[in-house]
Amino acid sequence: MAKGYWIARIDVDDMEKYKKYIAANAAPLAEYGGKFLVRGGDRQEKEGNHRSRNVVIEFESYQKAIDCYNSPGYQAAIELRTAVSQSDTVIIEGYDGPQPGDD
After folding, report:
1. Spatial distance between the Cα atoms of 41 and 27, rounded to a whole number of angstroms
2. Please, which residues bridge with residue 90 across strands?
3. Contact partners, residue 78, CB within 8 Å, separation at least 6
4. Which residue from 7, 42, 49, 102 has the highest number of Cβ atoms inside 10 Å of its Cβ?
5. Domains detected in the chain
6. Which helix or strand (DSSP H or E) is residue 38 part of?
7. Alpha-carbon gap, residue 56 to 25, rounded angstroms
8. pLDDT digits (tens, 9 = 90+) for 76-92
9. Distance in angstroms (rounded) separating the CA atoms of residues 85 and 17
């Protein structure tokens, strides 16, 4: 079964208020098994449009990623985030097929 991922790019206008969103999203992410793979960090912007913060969260399945996003707990957290940031978010299914170099 392919894993599921949230990929988010975010510009934060007020980091102190954004921290309330971070606190509020902890419970739903834990409930659905979300695991941060990328949470800010250094980056090199190479192509296209960019935002100041990048996040990748892994779930054991695509369905769990969707269910977490749609959960009442995460929907409440979104309200805190949207008041102080702009974001682009995608939920995407992982890939389990052949990789370059596989025979």
Report:
1. 23
2. 7
3. 21
4. 7
5. 4-44+51-93 (3.30.70.100)
6. strand 35-39
7. 14
8. 999 999 999 999 999 99
9. 10
Burial of 31 (0-12, 13-18, 19+ CB in 10 A): middle
With 0-12 / 13-18 / 19 or more C-beta atoms within 10 angstroms meaning exposed / middle / buried, residue 65 is buried
Which residue matches tokens 């979300």?
Answer: 34
- Least Cα distance to 9 among 96, 94, 90, 98 occurs for 90
pLDDT score, position 84: 97
pLDDT at 81: 96
Residue in the block written with tokens 């979104």? 78
**Model pLDDT for residues 31-51, shown as the tens digit of each residue:** 999 999 999 999 999 999 999
Write out the two tokens for 34: 């979300």
